[in-house]
Design brief:
There is one protein chain. This protein is mostly helical. It is built from 11 helices and no strands. Helix 3 (about 45-60) crosses helix 4 (about 65-100) and helix 10 packs antiparallel against helix 11 (about 185-215). It is globular.
Length: about 220
């Protein structure tokens, strides 16, 4: 089991490294800039295409950071961040219903996953606030939260509003850091860094509370 997990991690890292290398190459030859300009000229339809692309990568288990950065590159850190947030929320809802549909024939197997069990226990203690809290914890697998919520058949209204609020810190961090690095905005960069540090401290605080509650 550990061997398979490591193999998947290695393959994922290799694919991400390949994608980044290819993207840098396309930047150098000007293909990316031309494609971004073409999308901008589409106006409203270009925005819909960008949101749709972000939605798809958030439904399937593919990192959405690339499309987020692309949207910010095309429309700027603020509008790009907003469009990415909309696509992220729609993608989460799509992943929720996909997992809910797939969980019918494989309900027993999918509920045996450790992450699903953890989310179920956390939500049984704090209900919707438990799901919202999980959204705020950094480095947790975003897609797995959506899938687990679908498998557990979490109340859809609670899932939507917790997702909308829970995705805001991530997009504030990315938009702020992007504006700081790409456009030299010191204020935006500081805001993004502060929110990111807050999320890390918040996640550590949750872990300490869990450890304390177990020992007690």
């Amino acid at each position: 089991m550990k061997y398979k997990s490591r193999l998947v991690s290695i393959i994922s890292l290799a694919l991400i490294a390949t994608a980044i290398s290819y993207y840098i190459y396309l930047l150098k030859v000007g293909v990316v800039q031309h494609a971004f300009h073409a999308i901008q000229e589409l106006g409203f339809w270009g925005v819909l295409i960008g949101i749709f692309a972000q939605m798809i990568v958030n439904i399937i288990p593919v990192p959405g950071e690339f499309t987020t950065l692309m949207l910010m590159e095309i429309y700027g850190p603020i509008l790009g961040g907003i469009y990415s947030w909309i696509g992220g929320v729609l993608g989460a809802i799509g992943a929720y219903f996909l997992a809910k549909w797939l969980s019918k024939p494989f309900a027993g197997t999918m509920k045996d996953f450790a992450f699903t069990n953890k989310l179920e226990r956390y939500m049984s203690e704090k209900k919707a606030l438990g799901l919202l809290t999980v959204r705020f914890v950094p480095f947790l697998p975003y897609h797995m939260i959506n899938y687990a919520a679908g498998v557990l058949k979490v109340d859809i209204k609670s899932f939507i509003w917790t997702t909308m609020i829970g995705l805001l810190p991530y997009h504030i961090v990315v938009s702020g850091m992007y504006a700081g690095v790409r456009h030299g905005s010191l204020v935006a960069g500081v805001i993004g860094a502060v929110v990111f540090i807050f999320l890390i401290l918040f996640g550590r605080t949750l872990k300490r509370r869990k450890v304390t509650s177990k020992t007690n």
